[in-house]
Design a protein that fits this description.
Radius of gyration: 31 Å
Number of helices: 0
Oligomer: single chain
Strand content: over 45%
Shape: rod-shaped
Helix content: under 10%
Largest sheet: 8 strands, antiparallel
Distance between the termini: 28 Å
Structural class: mainly beta
């Protein structure tokens, strides 16, 4: 009996709002303004007649972590780095500023909440205005002259191996842009909230025997002798992050066909899996349904049991069973 297995993936459609973590790293040459010293003096430190600082901030309203395949893949690689860009503008006089980004947990991880589970990631600085920024925990500082714009570029990454259910995952980052002056309290000029999202697709994978990948897609089962009630079996492993269904179809209508006489001479058999005893035919039949398996997977043995063989002609008998898995 020849068995052939497949893998299923269902992509989720629709826009999502979600968000991962931030680790801020500074560029070279940024040694100003790393500390903010509150002072009730307010305008202390500003030169007489100097134009006031007018800071502006351009941010995306939401960022979707798209991944190489349109979403996070619990069973696949996720090397995708989603770019995020913030532009800091000054339409007034020269000034120093601080850009504060909040939204991580106590461990510095950016957590996206979803259907009863969470995705964890990080937001990492890849450019800080060509080295004009200095960084502290959750803080980027710099200086802007009149009419200048500086960009902070980040990448959003999601960690590997997070076996979570399908659905939409989201979080938000709160961004504040403040003017800083010696001897004065920081003055907030603008604040923004960035929604960050990621989609997790429903995925299911079936493996036959102990093999993985291509080695788990085929199995050859041999009866030592065609005896009534004889059994051959193969281990079956399913990994699914949500509901799944196994389907099976027999090329010879649920029977082993004689190698020379074909469908004119057959030996019937039944399939046993998950406590069910089934007869196959030439159509696609559901043989098992289940819920999410967890990262360890669900394992059982698929058995083929021969029916009556009395009076059968000598020869080789065979059938091919096609088994596929789908996400529900």
């Amino acid at each position: 009996v020849m068995l052939a297995a497949g893998t299923a993936r269902a992509d989720l459609a629709g826009p999502v709002s979600t968000l991962p973590t931030l680790e801020v790293g500074g560029g070279p040459g940024g040694d100003r303004g790393t500390a903010i010293r509150p002072d009730p003096g307010g305008e202390a430190g500003r030169e007489s007649g100097e134009a006031p600082c007018r800071l502006g901030l351009d941010t995306p309203g939401w960022v979707e972590w798209r991944g190489a395949g349109g979403g996070y893949a619990p069973l696949g690689g996720n090397p995708w780095l989603e770019p995020v860009r913030l532009d800091i503008r000054n339409s007034g006089g020269p000034c120093d500023y601080a850009l504060e980004i909040a939204g991580r947990d106590a461990a510095g991880t950016l957590v996206l909440d979803g259907p009863g589970h969470r995705l964890e990631g990080s937001l990492q600085v890849v450019e800080a205005g060509g080295g004009a920024f200095a960084a502290g925990p959750g803080l980027i500082t710099g200086a802007l002259g009149a009419g200048m714009v500086q960009s902070a570029r980040f990448v959003l990454a999601l960690g590997e191996g997070q076996f979570v259910p399908p659905g939409s995952y989201a979080t938000s980052l709160d961004v504040r842009l403040m003017e800083i002056r010696p001897g004065a309290a920081p003055v907030e000029h603008v604040s923004r909230r960035i929604q960050i999202g990621a989609r997790v697709a429903g995925v299911a994978r079936l493996a036959l025997g102990s093999g993985l990948g291509d080695e788990g897609r085929h199995a050859l089962l041999r009866f030592p002798q065609a005896r009534s009630g004889g059994v051959v079996e193969v281990p079956v492993t399913v990994h699914a992050n949500g509901p799944y269904t196994l389907h099976a179809r027999s090329e010879n209508g649920g029977a082993l066909a004689h190698g020379l006489l074909g469908a004119g001479l057959t030996l019937p058999y039944t399939v046993q899996i998950g406590g069910h005893d089934l007869r196959l035919d030439g159509t696609d039949r559901v043989i098992l349904s289940g819920q999410g398996t967890g990262l360890e997977g669900w394992q059982d043995r698929l058995a083929i049991r021969l029916g009556p063989t009395d009076g059968a002609l000598a020869g080789a008998y065979a059938d091919t069973i096609h088994i596929r898995i789908t996400t529900d």
